[in-house]
Specification:
Length: about 140
């Protein structure tokens, strides 16, 4: 059975910054045909749940209270890539807009809810390593 790396919050794990989850029924339904590998790069990188919201500001990941958490995000991304490789994942379905998992659009770094083009730290690393990255609302999910 093919394995797909999936943001754990999309599978109902309460690991988001606000200690909530964002279950996505379309993504959860993929468990009927695929082995879903849950991952939360922020937690893997050593950040607590709940945690202060973070956004990418320039080349760094900053918490809303001004703490630089870039190294936590990089460490979590590296561990997520490791999980993908160990499990033979060539695809990842990640939480949109996240500074870690966002693919194509992420929050602007101004903590005002606005979006900019870009990828989160984990999404970018996975892409750089040949893993197809989709957001939970991607039309391609229907094709699985």
């Amino acid at each position: 059975m093919k394995s797909i790396l999936v943001s754990a919050c999309l599978l109902g794990v309460p690991c988001r910054y606000d200690a909530q989850s964002k279950p996505c029924k379309e993504v959860c339904a993929l468990s009927q045909k695929y082995h879903l590998i849950p991952v939360c790069p922020e937690v893997l990188g050593g950040l607590p749940t709940p945690r202060i919201p973070c956004e990418i500001v320039g080349e760094r990941v900053m918490s809303r209270d001004g703490r630089d958490v870039t190294e936590n995000y990089r460490a979590g991304a590296t561990k997520a890539l490791e999980l993908a490789r160990i499990n033979g994942c060539d695809t990842a379905i990640l939480k949109e807009r996240s500074p870690s998992c966002g693919c194509g659009n992420i929050y602007s770094g101004r903590f005002d809810g606005s979006l900019v083009n870009g990828d989160g730290v984990t999404a970018a690393l996975l892409k750089e390593n040949g893993i197809r990255v989709l957001g939970e609302r991607a039309k391609e999910i229907e094709e699985f």
